[in-house]
UniProtKB/TrEMBL annotation, chain A:
Gene Ontology BP terms: proteasome-mediated ubiquitin-dependent protein catabolic process
GO cellular component: cytoplasm; nucleus
Domain (CTLH) ranges: 77-134
Organism per entry: Citrus sinensis (Sweet orange)
Protein name: CTLH domain-containing protein
Pfam families: CTLH (PF10607), LisH (PF08513)
Entries under PANTHER family matching the protein: RAN BINDING PROTEIN 9-RELATED (PTHR12864)
TrEMBL record, chain B:
Gene Ontology biological process terms in this record: proteasome-mediated ubiquitin-dependent protein catabolic process
Keyword flag Repeat: yes
GO CC annotation: cytoplasm; GID complex; nucleus
Cellular location(s): Cytoplasm; Nucleus
Keywords for this protein: Cytoplasm, Nucleus, Repeat
Lineage top rank: taxon: Eukaryota
InterPro entries per the UniProt record, alphabetical: ARM-like, ARM-type_fold, Armadillo, ARMC8/Vid28
Chain positions of ARM repeats: 520-547
Stated name of the protein: Armadillo repeat-containing protein 8
Provenance organism: Citrus x changshan-huyou
Amino acid sequence: MSLFWIVIRQLAEIEAMAMSKKVITREEWEKKLNDVKIRKEDMNKLVMNFLVTEGYVDAAEKFRMESGTEPDIDLATITDRMAVKKAVQCGNVEDAIEKVNDLNPEILDTNPQLFFHLQQQRLIELIRNGKVEEALEFAQEELAPRGEENQSFLEELERTVALLAFEDVSNCPVGDLLDISQRLKTASEVNAAILTSQSHEKDPKLPSLLKMLLWAQNQLDEKAAYPRINDLATATLEDPAI
Amino acid sequence: MPTTTASAAGTTVGNNILLRLTSGERDVKLKALRELKNQIIGNRTKKLSFLKLGAVPAVAGILSDAVSAVDVADDDENDRIVKDIIVQSAAVLGSFACGFEAGVRAVLDAGAFPNLSRLLSYTDENFKIGDFGDILIQRGCLVEEMLLHKSYMEVVDAGARSLKMIYQSKMAPKYDFLQEENMEFLLSLLNNESENVSGLGASIISHSCKTSLEQKLLFDAGVLKRLTSLLGGSLIQRDASLESIATIFKNNPEVVSKFVGPDTGRTLSCIIDLVKDRFARTRLLASLCLIVIRNASACYLQDVGIKTKLINNLLELLDDPGQVGDEASFAFSSLIAEKEDMQKLAFEVNGIDKLYNHLQKGSLHPRRFEGILLALADMCSKLECCRSRCLSLQVLNLVVDALAHDSSDVRSAACMCLRSVSRSIKNLSAGSFMNETIVIPLVRLLDDTSTAVQKVMGQTISNSFDWPRSVVFGWEAKCILASGCNLRGSSMPISVAALGAISNIVVDFTTRRSTFIRLGGVKLLVQLLKSMDSTIRLNALWALRNLIFLAEDKCKEEIFMELTASLLASLICDPEPSVQEQALALVRNLVDGRINSVEYIFAEDGIILDAVGRQLRIASKAEIEIQGMYVLSNVATGKESHKEAVMDQLLLHAENKAQSCIIKFLQSNDSRLRTAAVWAVLNLTCSSSPGASGRLVELRDAGIVSHVKNMVNDPCLDVKLRVRTALGQFTSFDDSLILCIFSPAASNNKASTSCLQFLTVRAVGELSHVVDPSSKQAADSL
């Protein structure tokens, strides 16, 4: 090897040291990963938690039988909760409200924001179905008093009633209220409230674990080069770029 | 108008539902109940309109019928419908009682409470739910039986939920823990597997446990153990348990000390962990629990880490948009109120800035607004650094806006905040609070008729010895001026409250007094002196006392004309000791200064002086005696005749010369009182006056001189100094040295130092009563 190359290599090493980034090879990394012991039961619990929270009752039931993991909630309650969620998603808000009240009358009595959003969704559905008279009456009788109680409700109400002012609602500034995403938003709000009333966390743990993984990787990026997980779906380790 | 149509339509629907409630057919009735439930849940307006239609007694009647019918239901089908009717009617009543005080009253008036309670005892009499379920499972029971069990659970749950709603209101009947069977029932509720039932048990404790005896009984019955185990339960159980634990501990050091022992370290650390819980409400409740423990005695939770964690947690909870965020600031206040160390910690974690950021957001819910203002008031109550930070952030602009808020709670909180911030002597003297933007809204408050502002008065009065009062009369005068002397009629006490709350905005000793008097301010205050309410008398006296402090002769004269000697004398003998003290303090300021001021006390045959002397002989409170002695001491700076009158009060009127009150004061444990007494002796024997040597003889005969001599090594430096000066004076008669304490001409002798000291101490002593307790300390040790 010529002297030239030796000098170059030394320079590169010095530069690496100056950046003070530690390089961890795939072998080292995998060895470290293997040292971390995670119990299978804990992994199963995470999966079960996800299925229960998201309301996949059949999958949860199957998973329970196959893995022997007990859900931390009565699976029957998931069915009720999913029925409420589905009713909102289909636009049957009144039906959803009745179901929630049967499940637990405290939920809507103690959660004014959720109650307002459900009533708002009812108004949106009336407008969607072209029932203008009924929509106006409903807005006056049911929603206006809520707006008086709370400034932010009033603003939302005004936005919603604005739908009536446009000929072509699909193409107006408040048209997003008619989107299916608005229904989904309301549905997930109800879902979360029911879960909370059942002393269950309203969000599954798995997504927040993934968020923590990304955060930790970003932190680590500043200090070291290591095999990173870039594709969360496959979780393949990618060789560090040196 | 469309609104009328809409509500008319609503009424028709309502009447229709009510009509169907009375139907003989159970199915129709059940359907109507469900409909009613779905109408009112979450909807205050509907609750109110159905309440007016008389829905509550109707539903209570249905529940009552159904409860009696359930025992005689002949077949399963009937049984099921009856139970459904019970569940639905209980839910309706519970919803009426949820967050709606008029609803709670209606439910209670309709006699539904005992029937709802009967639903709970289904557990006890008919089915032991806990055992029952287990037995069924063990036997591999039939599905129908399980369903039956479930339907009973539904009944119990419905009853428990509704009762829980009622118990969240102050109107709920008080639960009597003193009866043994009630305590047993409570424990059975807490032990119940249903979280609604155990939650109800906890709600009952939070609602009804008020006295320290009840707290102790609950503790001794083992309730705390049960609550502690519920901390490991569901979210609802955990929150309910934390709330009850805080109730049992609140203001009860005895119970707390029993709890905080080596065995309960785990419970305590469990609560500490819950301060970091995922749920905001749990974090708040756990913090409240720790706050009551800490407030029970400063020796608990001394760890700075925990203290800081609590403060940070509560400040973070302010971000919660809901009720938790509203309540967090109140919890924060109770954590830091009156505790300088906590206030300092809160300051170090930028508490002022964080509170200010919330205040800045605008359009706050009144409850939240009030809480944040109170939190700021507490942070600024003692520490100058907090006040300066507030001023540099210009927090006051927002606070002043709040003075005109619609909610009276917000207005009074703003008053308190202003009061705390304006305690800053530095900024008072710099005139930082002298501007129209502050004055105008304050003036409006003078006409405030709300009871909440009256409440401020109550607080003001209860704190009156802690916080600086109206040094600041100029300010009040300005307010009166601007309001065109609008203090009148029944709103008078309230106006005084506003005056009290705002009175330390400006330090202005000399000007504006005459304006105030000219506008009849003194007349109004004198009117208040005749009030039946001792707190109002106290307040008005305080104001006058400050008005008179270091006032010019003309000003004093006008005030005295209004006051009259007889009124002052009767106030000195007021049944309320605090009024007596203020009246004496007022007289002390009245006779302070030039010799003609002293004359006031001799008006109407010396009626005031007699009252002072009498009070000194019978008073039991050191504060009264101190003020009284300073009155005499000030009078003794006057002419020969004045000094002799003081001698008479001290010696002649004493039943037994050996028991002259001054001897008692010289022997007092209170160094302030000893100081005042020695001052009197000093002024009486001041050798510049011709009769001094005669008085010295009299004092010696009464044994007073020897007492003073014995005090030469008094532990209190202030007393010691005074005593040495007095002894110097005593000997000066032999040396024929003429010392004149008050003559500036005598500035080259050793008494001049004491003269200076005298003036300093007296002036500062006066000020200390009106400015700040901390400076009072400083004055005492000066």
